[in-house]
C-alpha cells in the first residue's frame, strides 16, 4: 500500500490538471470555431505535423530519458547529479530546438506551398516555431520534477498555460484580430503566449524550490553520455512515429481534395475532424494518459526489483480500467454524439463523426496504456514496431481508400489500425508476462 500511495497521489494530481486543461481547451475550440470557422481551424491543424517533428527531434526522447535518470539518481541519494543532468539536458535540447526553429522559420514559405499546399500556413508556422525552445526548457524541468516524484509543477504549469492561452485569444479577438493577415494566427498567438507564461511560472517555481546540495560526484561528460545513450534510441522511436503521423496529417487534406475536387472543402472537413471531433473523442484519454505517465516508472521499478506480484497488479488493474472507460465512451458517444456535435459546435457533421468513431474508444484508451507498460518493461523496440505497422496501415487507407470513399475511408483506416495496434501490443505483453 505504501508503494501505491505516491503513484495514486501523483496520478490524481495529473488527472485533475489534465481534465481542467481539456475543459479549457474545449471552450477554446468552441470559441475559435465560431470566430475563425472550420477552414481556418484546418489551417491551424495543418502546422502541427511540422511542429511535432520538432518536438520529437529536439526533446521528447531526451525528456523521457531525463526522467528515468533523475529517478535513479534520487534513489541513490545523488540529488546534485539529478540537477546537474537537468542543466545538461536543457542546454542540449535548447541548442537542437533553436537550430530547428531557425531552419523552419526560413523555409516556411517552401513548406507551406510545396508540402502543406496551403499558403495561409506560412505565417502560422513561422510564429509557432518560436514556442519550441520555450516548450523544450519547460519539458525538461517537468521531466526532472516527475523523476523526483513531484507531479505538482507539471500540473500547475499545464493549468496556467491553458488559462493564459484562452485569455490571450479572447483579448486578441476584441482588439486587433481584424488586422491579422490570417485568421488562424489568433490560435497560434494564443499558443505561443500561453507557453511563454507557463515557462515563466515553471522557471520561478524551479528556482524558488531549489535547495543547496553537495557538489555532484558525476562529471558532465559521464552524465551527458548516460543521457545520450538512453535518449537517442527513445528519440529515434518518437521521431519515427511522429514522421509517420506527420505524413498522414499532410496526406489527408490532399486525398480529400482528390475526392471532393475542392481544396477549401477538404481543409474544412479536415478541420471539423481534427479540430472538433477527435479532441472530444479523446477527452476521456486525459485519465488514461495521466495513468500511463505514472505507470511507466512503476512498471520499470517492479521489473527491476523482480517483484512479479506488483508487476502483474500494475498491468491488470489499469488494463481493466481502460477497457471499462472505453466501453463507457463508446456508449456515450454513440448515443449522444449527434446531440453533442450540434449543441457544442453547431455542426451535424461533427456529431456524425463522433457516432461513427465511437467504436474506437476501447482501443484508443487502451493502446497508450499498453504501450506505456511495454516501455516500462524495456520493450521500446516492440512499441516502435507496432506503432509503425499501425500507422503504415492507416497511411495506406489514406492514399488508396480516401480518394474513392472520402472521409469514410479515413474512419475505416482508423478503426483497422487501432484494432491492429491493440492486438499487437496485447499479444506481446502476454508473451512477456508468460516469460516471467
Written account of the structure:
This protein is mostly helical and 436 residues long. It folds into 2 domains: 228 residues, no CATH class; 155 residues, no CATH class. It has 16 helices and no strands. Helix 1 runs antiparallel to helix 9 and helix 3 runs parallel beside helix 8. The radius of gyration is 22 Å and the shape is globular.
Mean pLDDT: 84
**How many individual helices?**
16
Strand fraction: under 5%
Tell me the series of helices and strands, N- to C-terminal: HHHHHHHHHHHHHHHH
Largest sheet: none
Structural class: mainly alpha
Estimate the helix proportion, in percent. over 70%
Rounded to an integer in angstroms, the radius of gyration calculated over CA atoms is 22 Å
CA-to-CA gap between the ends?
Answer: 23 Å
